[in-house]
Design brief:
By secondary structure, this protein is of the alpha/beta class. It contains 15 helices and 20 strands. The strands form three sheets. The chain has a nine-stranded mixed sheet, with helices on both faces. Helix 5 packs across helix 11 and helix 14 packs across helix 15.
Length: 477
């Protein structure tokens, strides 16, 4: 645990007692703060009590002595309207921050020689894979790398920072909204597309939250930015003018330029110290299929090269990367039919990336719909043999697919898996893929995308072959 001494001897409110909230409360107590912790959910309060926290109903207490509010990233900060706790904090002039800001404050209190390197990754899609890939490369090349933030354990649950370490942080727009002083040595913006618009009050506010990661950097911080979107390309041009070329590295999954890191097809090229040279063919990295992963690989390569890792060593490490659960994860295979869990694809663009990575797809899609335009997925339809629809978004998806793609309404996961498997066997296509890539949130039928992916894998493994050999579907490690 990282003790937080910023508020030693002062009272701090912690609202939202999930994984990060409980850890933040414990870290503040370890640093000498008086903690008033609360969650409106009774199960969350029970977990907090089991973790050793004393609860204090923030709805009923006087806020006059509150020095700061530590807010869970999932609690509305500004839109659709500020949560009541946010309004109470503002009324007494208490800053509203998150656990990433507490971590940043702990780092900023250290002498510069004792500070670890910080790599922050944001963007709409690809954050988790890029974060994990950077951590893998750093560890594979002998460095002490801690992967945290919006992935893995809470940041404050890690060991206290020390010189020579690397913290690789996946950062959502919600987390950045609650952060003011995180100075990333390398800050990465992968891409941008409309997402979480209700939470941010529109696309402009969402994008502004993302690019604040660059604004918090020191003048000598390295910015790595994808230039395949109009908005991020414009941001790159501005950063280059403000900082100078040596502090801004462009990345792309299809564009060639004189300086930066880019991918053409499955090959990743570096053009940093000299003319462009190919470093790795991602066909040798089985966990990184598709053009979107080419961008992720380019971003990871740019980041680790900026941190002093050799290009060839980084390329070799990429080949051994095992991927992440729920991100184009092969969970079962039977008689040539692969079952691929891409439950993390909760928006249309993320699902499009998966549709572009395979052929002969039997696509399971749906859940709780978002506001993004489903039509952006149309370029991927040519790879889909048939869609199998589930959840609240079933009607909206059917309307989008009608006349464009064969589909079947299945309602829930078990029916969709059975129907997709039966159709794949009946069609007899070469190397068929049953792909869960929902393009929707999971909360209509599941607690989260992890639970949805686990259900898909479970149903895939429970299927029994109806052919004469009678073999069951086998798990893929």
């Amino acid at each position: 645990m990282i003790p937080i001494q910023t508020y030693k001897g002062r009272r701090v409110a912690v609202f939202g007692l999930g994984r990060t909230g409980i850890t933040a409360a414990r870290a503040l107590k370890a640093g000498g703060a008086e903690v008033s912790a609360w969650d409106d959910s009774e199960p969350a309060r029970e977990k907090a009590i089991a973790a050793g926290l004393d609860l204090d109903d923030l709805n009923r207490r006087d806020w006059g002595d509150i020095a700061a509010l530590i807010l869970s990233p999932g609690v509305p900060l500004t839109h659709p309207k500020p949560h009541r706790m946010v309004e109470l904090a503002k009324a007494v002039g208490a800053p509203v921050i998150g656990d990433i800001e507490l971590f940043a404050q702990a780092l900023n209190a250290l002498p510069s020689r004792r500070r670890p390197k910080i790599i922050g990754i944001t963007g709409t899609n690809g954050k988790s894979t890029t974060t994990a890939l950077i951590g893998h490369i750093l560890r594979s090349t002998g460095r002490n790398a801690i992967v945290a933030g919006n992935i893995g354990d809470a940041i404050l649950a890690q060991d206290p920072p020390r010189a020579g370490s690397y913290y690789v942080l996946e950062l959502s727009s919600y987390q950045i909204d609650l952060t003011q002083s995180l100075h990333c040595d390398v800050a990465i913006m992968l891409n941008i597309s409309p997402d979480h618009l209700e939470r941010h009050g529109g696309f402009d506010n969402y994008f502004e939250a993302k690019i604040r990661l660059f604004e918090m950097q020191a003048p000598d911080g390295i910015a790595v930015i994808g230039i395949d979107d109009d908005e991020t390309n414009a941001c790159y041009s501005r950063l280059r003018r403000e900082r100078g070329e040596e502090f801004v590295i462009p990345i792309s999954a299809g564009r060639v330029f004189a300086r930066g890191v880019f991918a053409l097809g499955s090959r990743v090229y570096e053009a940093l110290d000299s003319a462009s040279v190919p470093l790795v063919d991602l066909k040798q990295a089985r966990a990184l299929p598709g053009q979107h992963n080419a961008q992720n690989a380019a971003a990871a390569m740019a980041a680790v090269r900026a941190l002093g890792v050799g290009g060839r060593a980084a390329a070799e490490a990429m080949k051994s990367f095992g991927g992440l659960p729920h991100r184009q994860e092969v969970v079962a295979e039977h008689n040539g039919v692969r079952f691929i869990n891409d439950s993390k694809a909760t928006n249309a663009l993320a699902a499009l990336q998966a549709l572009g990575s395979y052929e002969n797809i039997y696509w399971i899609a749906g859940g709780r719909g978002k506001d993004d335009d489903l039509s952006v997925m149309r370029p991927g339809y040519e790879n889909v043999a048939k869609a199998f629809l589930i959840g609240e978004a079933e009607e909206a998806f059917a309307a989008e697919l009608d006349g464009r793609l064969a589909y079947e309404r299945c309602g829930e996961m078990a029916s969709a898996v059975r129907a997709a498997f039966a159709q794949a066997r009946a069609d007899g296509a070469a190397s068929p893929v049953i792909l869960l890539s929902p393009a929707a949130a999971s909360f209509d039928q599941f607690a989260n995308f992890e639970a949805r992916g686990a259900a898909f894998a479970q149903h895939a493994l429970q299927l029994e072959d109806s052919a004469e050999d009678g073999e069951a579907v086998e798990s893929v490690a």
